[in-house]
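User: Show me a protein chain along with its predicted structure.
Assistant: Here is one chain, sequence first, then structure tokens.
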Amino acid sequence: MKLIYKVLAGTIIFIIFNNVTANAQGCVAISGKGAFTVMEHPMLDSSITPGKESSWVFTSAYRYFHSYKHFKGTEEQKQRQTLHNEVVNFQNTIDLSLTRNFNRFWSVTVGIPYLINIRSSLYEHGGKERHRSYSHGFGDARVVAYRWLFDPRTSHNGNLQVGLGIKLPTGDYNYHSYFYNVTPSNRPVDQSIQLGDGGVGAIAELNGFLHLGGRFSGYTNLYYMANPRNTNGTRTYRETLSPLLANESIMSVPDQYLARLGVNYTFNGSFSALTASVGGRMEGIPVRDLIGKSDGFRRPGYIISVEPSLNYSLKRVNLFASVPVALKRNRQQSVTDKENSAKTGTYVIGDAAFADYSINFGVSFKF
């Protein structure tokens, strides 16, 4: 019971701390619906006794990002900041998850994010004055089952873990906020700060590590979420900006993806371990979904980042942090952009605001 009280107290403190630092991210983003952190290899955990690998793990992770730099393709629209008509998004995501490790092969993770979003713009409020719109609440929940492909008792130098699961539409995908100088004034917030997307998604993951010699090892995480639903019925009001945007009047339900690849260096102590990592990270929204149609409004694109990170393990507590820094940002031409290009005979591509970096940190407790 004492351990459970400690876990609950630590979680409450963590959530309070995160809510104090509200704000961040942008128009092309995973936005709280991304992959879980990599599952820990059972035989790399000193708190697990062989043959007694069953356990519970509670994780609270936080992500912050602030987007304001607009891109069309890979070209930054620097004039937006000069003219002070850029869109600024602030996003905080607190991801809460509970993992049940059944044995050294199998585990299941259930998680749900809590999001706090702020969006500042001119064009959504009549075009003359800058105002803010808001959204906050729980997002889309995920349930994912994982299995190590090789026996962790004998595969000390490398292993692969596959994950299959489902994303549930528990987040509000028609969240309303107040908008100034427009009619109606109470309308859905922009897609980038909606709490959910309204789709039931299929999740596939591949996580792995490889010992490279000495204190070095490599890691990889691959994540894809397929959203078969086409559109979710939420209005964007983009058709009020231009008749050419009639095909963007309803929000799309897009797929999402994430890929990470890097190298770890571990310092082992008597009762703890510190791991420093550096790698590459790519995340985004595809132009076309893997399954189903891709109509309606979306901002497809991707971010390629360099990602330094730290991980500190002490008995049954694990602390982790990373700061991906953007190297390349690309707002791709959407399906509706291509339709409008065909209609007008000119190349049409929308823009999107990206962040320079994101801040990720969290804590997990094993009990």
